[in-house]
DNA sequence: AAACCTTTGAAGAAT
DNA sequence: ATTCTTCAAAGGTTT
């Protein structure tokens, strides 16, 4: 597993690269924060892109170039964070899910109101990840994993679930510990979690046998997936009716990566601060805030993402990211691909000239 | 109505 | 082994 790559030795070079960027990010952050509070919002919006270009990559003029440059940096950067994460994991794997920072993470995002009995608030374990204070969607991706949903009666579950062939991807003790219930919690997650460990067990519209939709599963309608998901959350009968109408095969979405989890948590906060609503702009801010995070702060999300992937893998052993390839139709990308596939358009400008010589890149690459 | 935009990270495909 | 592509979320914008 890539994220477990101990990184083969934390080369100090990584740190050397990390530091300047981080400072840069912090500066940006300060600027950004000031912008939120002092700058006219319209100015902020209009200057957002320019500002980011100036701050992040002075040599770059085109947004696309920013993207490319960052991609080049990205891998190194992510590797470094994996290193950081590994460091954290080294500390946490032994006790992470038995305690502290992340124990019961899936429940962390759960408003107390959703907690079993309403009494077992994991507040003591809450990390800053908690979202409701920002008006975030209370039902985060991991909500369905909560014991609130596990609770509702294993009686609903097929008796032979754990005996289903092909779903015996080894159950990591790590994971079962990770999703362990609070002491005194009502339900107990079966060690195997096999009761909902295969997509085949899901209804036509991605409903869990318990009636709780898994966040990674959406009806394959393409558009308005999220709306449907939200409706599924709150209107069960309606959903059931729809379930009958839609024999379509459910789409299992990719598990969220660290940054996506971070975005999900922070989006509402950023929107509240700057009143921007345009996701593209918000995401730019979030990207910069992400870089401004400390390693430890980021490590939290890498760890959460790792658990997400683990659980996703257990829930849908046969799922592959490839399954969703081609589900989205592209308009512009195709053009870009065409230009890239052009024999006269060298794809490897970045590799050839490096990020510091982007002026030597061909037009499309710039 | 559907794709785009914009971000980072993970996975898979391609080279 | 390295590079490239696609998708994950989100919601206003563009086509």
From TrEMBL:
Belongs to the TCF/LEF family. GO terms for cellular component: beta-catenin-TCF complex; chromatin. Its main location: nucleus. Residues 1-11 have a biased composition (Gly residues). CDD domains: HMG-box_TCF7-like. It is found in: Nucleus. This is Transcription factor 7. Residues 252-320 bind DNA. PANTHER family: TRANSCRIPTION FACTOR 7, TRANSCRIPTION FACTOR 7 FAMILY MEMBER. Residues 1-29, 52-71, 319-352 are annotated as: Disordered. Residues 252-320 form the HMG box domain. SMART domains: c-clamp (SM01366), HMG (SM00398). PROSITE patterns: HMG_BOX_2.
């Amino acid at each position: 597993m890539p994220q477990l790559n101990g990184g083969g030795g934390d080369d100090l070079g990584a740190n050397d690269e990390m530091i300047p960027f981080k400072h840069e990010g912090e500066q940006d952050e300060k600027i950004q924060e000031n912008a939120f509070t002092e700058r006219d919002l319209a100015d902020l919006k209009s200057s957002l892109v320019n500002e980011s270009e100036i701050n992040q990559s002075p040599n770059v003029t085109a947004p696309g170039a920013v993207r490319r440059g960052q991609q080049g940096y990205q891998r190194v950067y992510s590797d470094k964070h994996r290193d950081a994460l590994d460091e954290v994991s080294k500390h946490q794997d032994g006790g992470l899910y038995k305690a502290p920072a992340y124990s019961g993470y899936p429940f962390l995002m759960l408003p107390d109101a959703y907690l079993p009995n309403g009494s077992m608030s994991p507040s003591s374990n809450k990390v800053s990840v908690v979202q409701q204070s920002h008006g975030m969607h209370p039902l985060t991706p991991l909500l369905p994993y909560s014991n609130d949903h596990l609770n509702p009666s294993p009686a609903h579950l097929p008796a032979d679930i754990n005996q289903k062939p092909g779903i015996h991807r080894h159950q990591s003790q790590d994971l079962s510990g990770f999703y362990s219930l609070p002491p005194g919690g009502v339900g107990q997650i079966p060690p195997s979690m096999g009761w909902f460990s295969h997509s085949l067990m899901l209804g036509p519209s991605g409903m869990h046998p318990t009636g709780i939709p898994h966040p990674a599963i959406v009806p394959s309608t393409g558009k308005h997936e999220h709306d449907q998901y939200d409706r599924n959350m709150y209107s069960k009968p309606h959903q059931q009716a729809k379930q009958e109408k839609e024999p379509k095969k459910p789409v299992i979405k990719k598990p969220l990566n660290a940054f996506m989890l971070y975005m999900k948590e922070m989006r509402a906060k950023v929107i509240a601060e700057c009143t921007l609503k345009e996701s593209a702009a918000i995401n730019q801010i979030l990207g910069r805030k992400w870089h401004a995070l400390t390693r430890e702060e980021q490590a939290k999300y890498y760890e959460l993402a790792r658990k997400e992937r683990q659980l996703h893998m257990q829930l849908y052993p046969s799922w592959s990211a490839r399954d969703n390839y081609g589900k989205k139709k592209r308009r512009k990308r195709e053009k870009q691909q065409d230009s890239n596939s052009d024999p006269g358009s060298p794809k490897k400008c970045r590799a050839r000239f490096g990020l510091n010589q982007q002026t030597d890149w061909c037009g499309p690459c710039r």
